[in-house]
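User: Is it possible to get a 3D structure for a protein together with its bound compound? The compound here is L-homoserine. I've pasted both below.
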Amino acid sequence: MLRYTIPATTANLGPGFDTLGLAINIYSEFQVTSAEKDVFYIHDWQDNLLSIDKSDNLLNKSLLEFADYYQLTLPSIEIREKLKVPLARGMGSSAAAILGGLTAGAIATGILPAKDDFVEMAVKLEGHPDNVLPALFGGLIINYSDQERIFYEKIEIDPELNFILVIPDFELKTSELREILPKNVDYSTVLFNMSRVALLVKSFLTKDWQLLENAMQDKLHQPFRSAKIPGFNKIIATAYAAGARGAALSGAGPTILAITDKNPEKIAGAMCATCLDYGIKAEYLIAKADNQGLYNQLEELLK
Ligand code: HSE
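Assistant: Yes, that's possible. Here is the predicted structure of the complex:
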């Protein structure tokens, strides 16, 4: 039996729509064992065993993609996945399933995919790179692409920072949250976001946390998606009033991310209380960045 873990992620960080994502130290756990036939056991973050429809399951799709990519037949395996983040909340649960399935394929066959090949398979399955890349390589990942391939740069994140994730008790599907975005945006919106992304990168590189409040503003996606979260602007304002350095939607939402170097419990509690004022029950997690990711583990496993 082989085990590996995959970090949860928080994408966009405000202005970095589809281009920025960060790995955090909350790890979904996987075990792969050889078996008579393929069997998957997936436990959600409350430890309920999920019943899965195999034809529509991301673990299974990812295994099939691995087999197709390398043009081979996989031996049968049993995969056990224990999710540590809730589904459909903007914390990378689908990226974990995709990378979990591809890694299971690698373990079953002993093939260590080159980094670029792993990225190509994962992004094809996920549709956008900003969760799968940080889960694979750790840290804050900036991705960019041309017609042919995806490139990325990693910034290691200071362990001093706390990432608070306030998780509402309802799901929102990323695919639906992409459909509500406008098809076109004007120059002023693009300029607004470009300047914030530049500031955000400076903030993380120089550890100047005072920049984060302006740097995490966004006009490309949050104004449209936040309408689905009652009290969103008030929850963000509460985070700042309680001392957060930055705050934004986590991925497409509905989870809300706040970043702080101090008093994370106090900020998280205040944000959850504001959620309740708007009728939303919310839980929180407090994490640090993960600067390792999955790929290093796979290299060790397949040595
Ligand atoms: N960047 C994606 C979005 C979510 O905002 O739709 C994370 O992959």
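Residues 162-287 form a domain with the Alpha-Beta Plaits fold (CATH 3.30.70.890). Residues 187-206 form the longest helix (20 residues).
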